[in-house]
Amino acid sequence: MNKRLKDMINTLLYLLGVLCLTYFVIAFVGQRTRVDGASMEETLYNGDNLIVDKITYRFRDPERFEIIVFPVQYDRSKLFIKRIIGLPGETIQIDAGGNIYIDGKVLQEGYGKEIISPDHIGIAGAPITLGDDEYFVMGDNRNNSSDSRLEIVGNIKREDIIGRVVLRIWPLSRFGSVESGKKTVEN
Questions:
Q1: Active-site residue 177, yes or no?
Q2: Theoretical Cys-Cys bridge with 149: which of 105, 115, 122, 171, CB 3.0 to 4.6 Å?
């Protein structure tokens, strides 16, 4: 084999290796996604570019207040980005004052952009008991979010969760980790 052909084969093998590694990272480790809309304001903004960690949930279950990515039920090519509020087996309800109850206890959290208006309580006005593999999610912009309070979204199955948001990469002025914070349910 002449040197030129050998170099060409080496280059092709190198490019094939890079493509395989890229596919592996996108399929199993992480991916970039873009925020489309205002449902997660004041945490995430329209146009923000994010990195989604797809590997953590292979080793542990999602936790309350983590921001997750999952496909829209009626158009699986589109993704929703929401915050986990309710965990498997819990009962969720929202009262007319906008208070979120988990198993009858008020959820103390500071992620909501504003108090939930009575017009945006949705199906959560009545108690919703989550299945063993279901999560209740909400956008931080509580009065401008399509989330588990709407039948069209409903509870999110564990198998549908793509991953958790860990990093904002654009715009550079807000570059950094996306903290979920740890708040607790109180009596």
A1: no
A2: 122
54, 82, 145, 180: which one is catalytic?
82
Q: Sign of the C-alpha dihedral, residues 6, 7, 9, 14?
A: positive
Can you list the domains of the chain with their CATH numbers?
Answer: 30-177 (2.10.109.10)
Tokens 């593999």 sit on residue:
133
Given the residues 39, 145, 148, 180, the one annotated as active site: 39
54-69 as b/e, with b when 16 or more CB fall inside 10 Å? beebeeeebebbbbbb
pTM as predicted: 0.82
pLDDT per residue of the chain (187 residues) written in tens, 0 to 9: 688 878 788 788 778 877 766 666 655 556 778 888 889 988 899 999 898 998 899 899 999 999 999 998 777 678 999 999 999 999 999 999 999 999 999 998 888 778 889 989 999 999 999 999 999 999 999 999 999 999 989 999 999 999 999 888 888 888 888 876 554 444 4
User: Is 54 annotated in the active site?
Assistant: no
